[in-house]
Amino acid sequence: MVSFTDDIVWYSMRQGDKRGTEVDFFDFTYDGLITNSFLQNGLGQLTDGEEGDTNFRLDPQELGIKGYEWVGWKNDTLIDPGPVSIVFKFDTVRNFSSVTLFCNNYFTKDVRVFKTAAIYGSVGGLYYWQKVDNYHCIRDTVVEYARKVQIKLGNMIARYVKVDLHFDAKWILISEVQFDSSEY
């Protein structure tokens, strides 16, 4: 059963990418609009409470879909491709303490936790400001396990939160995004 938390009304982002012939890092359960590989105004795997296994080639739920718990994006350019951007809308204006992303770091398979994250807030969804400086993730070249990365938001007041993730390898894989917030 899919359940959604954190008072998130919807999130919007680019659909995940296909990895070869075996693994599709798509948001399979997304319930919003999907237009030209862009997901808009819905909820799906990033907020369903299910964390993916480090080895994304497994099918632990026996659904016939390897890597099902992961949504992933590929950097296949030689120059900076720009960030993976995810916009979250909440039920009301909230006071945000932190955001936690469950990320894969299977670096022998060209997957790493993002290099930097920029977090922006907005009250109306049109104009965004950056509350905290870019979060720089320390590269782990020893442990390949998937992990939670928590970013402190310093009591950011917003109804919309935009998360920009910058690549540190060929792939970024995210399984869950959770916010610590309270009503404002």
From TrEMBL:
Localization per record: Membrane
Keyword check for Ligase: no
Record-annotated Discoidin domain positions: 8-181
Cellular component aspect of the GO annotation: membrane
Keyword Plastid: no
Keyword annotations of the record: Disulfide bond, Glycoprotein, Membrane, Signal, Transmembrane, Transmembrane helix
Top-rank taxon, per record: Eukaryota
Main localization category: membrane
Alphabetical list of InterPro entries matching this protein: DDR1-2_DS-like (IPR048525)
Annotated membrane topology: Single-pass type I membrane protein
The name this protein goes by in its record: Discoidin domain-containing protein
